[in-house]
Design a protein that fits this description.
Layout lengths: L8 E7 L13 H9 L5 E6 L7 H12 L5 E7 L4 H11 L3 E4 L13 H13 L4 E4 L5 H10 L5 E4 L8 H9 L3 E5 L8 H9 L4 E3 L8 H9 L5 H17 L4
Parallel strand pairs: 1-2, 2-3, 3-4, 5-6, 6-7, 7-8
Helix pairs in contact: 5-6
């Protein structure tokens, strides 16, 4: 495949056996590597599926062990709201620079994402400039606005965006919160395309993903390369913005 950018860096890959069988086969690092090599995708942030239905202390170690010995794929560390400092020490030891709060896929752990419950975690994420990945499907716009108002310098990467012509809530969030970043993938489309968002909010607000393993990654590549973005914006979305965010982390 002739590349139109220096490299591709996917920000939304997940691996591991799901709590309920929803894929034809378990998404493994080997399968991820094989599929990404066809594009080719040079680097990726990788989240753990099992960490969402096990305790993060176990799931994070399993993910770190799975990714050990290579530099192409970097893990996303899963956090709980209580006793954050030891968790961030483990995150640093594991060499991970992006975080997410534990979801409630199995109904085992329930807690509010609002500041009154997770404020200590948000304070550290903000102070250390650690990006937090949040799925659009897991949070309300009101709650996200409230948290980012309380912690205006906390960096949030919003994934699993809806396929809509225009989305008033997302655009309002972009206007209010300069540290909100959107992940472009095949699950997200917008009237006027990516280029229209880059013109309105700048080329630094976007990262790129493939929605692996749910989607065929070629669709995300096609959407990016035919987005109408000029080369500087194309490079920023394809890899430059996430690389800058990772460099600026202060673990």
């Amino acid at each position: 495949m002739d590349m139109m950018v220096e490299r591709l860096f996917a920000c939304d890959a997940v691996i591991g056996r799901p709590f309920k069988l929803i894929y034809q086969q378990e998404p493994t690092l080997e399968d991820l590597r094989k599929r990404f090599s066809r594009i080719p995708v040079e680097r990726a942030l990788v989240r753990s599926i099992p960490v969402q239905y096990s305790h993060p202390s176990l799931g994070n170690r399993v993910l770190a062990d799975s990714l050990a010995g290579q530099t192409a794929f970097e893990g996303v560390f899963t956090l709980l709201p209580e006793d954050p400092e030891p968790q961030f020490a483990e995150m640093k030891q594991a060499g991970m620079r992006v975080a997410m709060l534990k979801l409630d896929d199995a109904g085992a752990v329930r807690f509010s994402r609002k500041s009154w419950c997770c404020g200590e975690v948000y304070e550290i994420l903000q102070a250390r400039r650690i990006p937090q990945i949040i799925s659009w499907k897991s949070v309300s716009a009101d709650d996200l606005h409230g948290v980012m108002t309380d912690f205006p310098e906390m960096r949030v990467i919003l994934t699993e965006l809806p396929r809509v012509g225009r989305h008033a809530e997302i655009e309002a969030l972009l206007k209010h919160h300069p540290e909100l970043y959107l992940c472009f993938s095949n699950s997200f489309s917008i009237q006027g395309g990516y280029a229209s968002l880059c013109r309105r909010y700048g080329i630094h607000r976007w990262v790129w993903g493939t929605n692996y393993p749910v989607s065929e990654e070629g669709a995300s590549v096609t959407g990016l390369f035919y987005s109408g973005l000029e080369q500087p914006a194309l490079e920023a979305v394809a890899h430059g913005n996430i690389e800058r965010l990772l460099i600026e982390v202060q673990l």
